TrEMBL record:
Keywords for the protein's UniProt record, in alphabetical order: Activator, Nucleus, Transcription, Transcription regulation
Function summary: Component of the Mediator complex, a coactivator involved in the regulated transcription of nearly all RNA polymerase II-dependent genes. Mediator functions as a bridge to convey information from gene-specific regulatory proteins to the basal RNA polymerase II transcription machinery. Mediator is recruited to promoters by direct interactions with regulatory proteins and serves as a scaffold for the assembly of a functional preinitiation complex with RNA polymerase II and the general transcription factors.
Gene expressing this chain: MED10
Protein name as annotated: Mediator of RNA polymerase II transcription subunit 10
GO cellular component annotations of the record: mediator complex
GO terms for MF: transcription coregulator activity
Family, as annotated: Belongs to the Mediator complex subunit 10 family.
A GO biological process held by the record: regulation of transcription by RNA polymerase II
Amino acid sequence: MEAGDPEGAVRGALTKIHSVERLVKDFSPGSSEELVQRLNDFVASLGKVREATGKTEVEFPVELIKRLDTGVNPDKFVIDALHTCVVENQKVKGKATNLQKFHDALVEQATAAFPVEAEAYRKLKSNPGSG
């Protein structure tokens, strides 16, 4: 593993924790020294992760951490986040459409009530550089 290789460092830490999990699953009284050694290896690998990331700042959404703690697949979090974005995008698109309809109706009514001013407005809008 190269220095500054966060992915490799994380893979190494995951390998170490997996070996700890396997040993704990099949734990017997005679394997306590081996467990201590594997735990120490895991802790050392966490130090390597910290070194590999250097001064890189990484932020994770709190909701993602909570879901991971409850055993939810992180891919499900991403899918849910994308779904939420799509829903919010549709809401904003609807608001923009309604605002455009309101603008069009307002211009139409202003044209009927103030034809001279509306014509001046249209000229200004079609040629914004002059005036």
